[in-house]
Fold this sequence. Notes:
The chain is an alpha/beta fold. The chain is built from twelve helices and 18 strands. The strands form three sheets. Strands 1, 2, 8, 9, 10, 11, 17 and 18 form an eight-stranded mixed β-sheet that branches. An eight-stranded mixed β-sheet has the order 5-6-4-13-14-15-12-16, with helices on both faces. Residues 1-22 have low confidence and may be disordered.
Amino acid sequence: MLRLGRVLRSEALRQLRHLSSKPGGDVLPQSCDVLIIGGGGMGASSAFWLKSRAQQLGRSLKVLVVERDSGYTSASTVLSVGGVRQQFSLAENIQMSLYGYDFIVNSQKHLGDVDVCYQPNGYLILASDKGADILAQNSKLQNELGARNELLGQEALRRRFPWLSTTDVELGCHGLDKEGWFDPWALLMGYKRQARTLGANFANGEVVSFEWNSSGALSGAVVDSGDGVQRTVKFDTCVLAAGAHSGQVARLANIGNPEAKDDTLRVALPVEPRKRYVYVFSTQGRNCPGMATPLTVDPDGTYFRRDGLCGNFLAGRSPNDDEEPDCSTLDVDHGYFETDVWPTLANRVPAFESVKVQSSWAGYYDHNTFDANGVIGRHPHYSNLFIAAGFSGHGIQQTPAVGRAISELILDGRFSTIDLSRLGFERLVKNQPMFEVNIV
Length: 440
């Protein structure tokens, strides 16, 4: 029997909002070398890497980040569950997450005095007989690229995880190393603080339009700082990293205009918000998953992991395409847990047959409707516009690699750490999707 308790925002999120509602933004300058639209994980990482690498190269670079949500109250970065894993099907995603893992566990080396609270408990992705072959193929590629995971059949799964019911499970892939979860808020603040230390500016405001020069190139952005005055910031280069709002911002730059003369401008940036719920629950059931339990993903996409030291768990599940919730608010659908999430939890873990929801929250995926993968790189029409958006729920772990990649494109003119060419905007123009099988 499901006992649904009073559902509240977690105390941690309330404290986060209290603390983040106070910071004052920097004064909006009239011009900069690089304007970054969006101060979440992707934007802040890009600012950090641009300033860090420019300093190493002995180059002066004026970087400005403009963030519309000054308190990060609805930012995808801080509302994510903060997972890092290599269990993907695309080489680029595996490589970016390997790079992300190394950065996260060595975050103090890069960002100074920051504790991202990394928990190295791995992932356990389960597959039915229909998905077992794909899971095995993906595991082979992941290990070839430097990940470390193992494939477990039903009997091995029961021995390793005695709390798990293997009904309808054919195979599991268990991450042995370089996987776990961390505090996204701490990582974001680490990026931001270090970027500011290196000279980057972070201003509060929303980009409401763009300006073009006589040759048709983007030359400025009009920013509404919320004080009744709109100001123009001139720039040489622009980075679009506005998360779930990136598609909307791109339209301001005439991207996706069906009447545009240039074919590449007719292609929209297909990024939009998708709301996802996270539920925190407790259980008094016996044979409960222990502290070292990996983040476990059921074949139907339902996931859960331990949450802190007090016996709580968190869980969620992405809805089917025809069941996407309204995104106008971040209200939580409590009934969704009872009808869609809890039945799978109870079936997979008998100890979860009787649970009590303690708190919940909702956050946005910056969902790429084209192929659910990030768009990374230079726009084919605007040579001074770079995009880092559309990561569809797996972006936080890839912020170190994407920010580094954006800095390489701007400062060096090419990718050098990881070749992410296949994830560029050109694939949208050519209608060549890069589908990722392991989306959680």
